[in-house]
Design goal:
Blueprint: E1 2-8, E2 14-22, H1 29-32, E3 39-49, H2 51-63, E4 68-71, H3 75-83, E5 92-94, E6 96-102, E7 109-115, H4 120-123, E8 135-136, H5 140-143
Parallel strand pairs: 2-3, 3-4, 4-5
Antiparallel strand pairs: 1-2, 6-7, 6-8
The structure holds zinc ion.
Length: 146
């Protein structure tokens, strides 16, 4: 199941939050009928995206009237994007990815948003409550552009 929430901000930007699983049943009609200008998509809650879901999402982005900004993309989306960089084509700018971090000193875990670019998991590593810096739980090339 996928949940789609939308909210228009004062400047006319449509903010769309997508959560759950994106698969072949992904139906963005509720967004397409309201998108007149800029769209910002919040994707931290997308747990998984199937290969047919990737196609459906790609078509959705192409169908939007203007360019799209993707923010806080989840690990599931980030790993698809690093494998298929053309996934969202030239129509979408990926601003940030919300990725899993762990603390090597105390073992604490948390999700943290970093810019979607090479080296960001180190440059923008979150500070742990214990005082140390946290490390990405996984390989940077798994989630971020090389
Ligand atoms: Zn710690």
């Amino acid at each position: 199941m996928v949940q789609i929430d939308k909210k228009k901000s004062a400047d006319g930007t449509l903010h769309v939050t997508i959560a759950g699983k994106i698969d072949e049943r992904f139906d963005p009609a509720v967004v397409l009928c309201e998108a007149r200008g800029k769209v910002v998509m919040h994707l931290a809650g997308v747990r998984s995206i199937s290969s047919l879901g990737v196609r459906a999402f790609e078509q959705f982005v192409q169908a939007l009237p203007e360019d799209v900004v993707l923010v806080h993309i989840s690990p599931a989306i980030a790993s698809q994007l690093t494998m298929i960089p053309n996934l969202v084509g030239a129509r979408a700018v990926v601003e940030s990815a919300k990725l899993p971090f762990t603390c090597p000193a105390c073992g604490a875990e948390k999700s943290h948003s970093v810019p979607f670019r090479a080296g960001a998991s180190v440059e923008h590593a979150p500070k742990c409550a214990c005082g140390g810096y946290m490390e990405l739980d996984g390989l940077p090339e798994q989630y971020l552009p090389a």
